[in-house]
Amino acid sequence: MEQISIANLEIDVVRKDIKNMHLAVYPPVGRIRLAAPEHTDPEIIRLFAISKLGWIKKHVKGFKESHRESPRKYISGEAHYFLGKKYMLEVKEDASKNTVELKGTKKIIMNLRLGTSYETRQRLMKEWYRAYLKSVVPALIDKWEQVIEVKSSDWQVKHMKTKWGSCKTDTKRILLNLELAKKPMICLEYIIVHELVHLIERNHNDNFIRLLNKFMPKWRLHRDELNRLPVSHVDWDY
Question: Does the predicted TM-score (pTM) go above 0.70?
Answer without folding.
Answer: yes
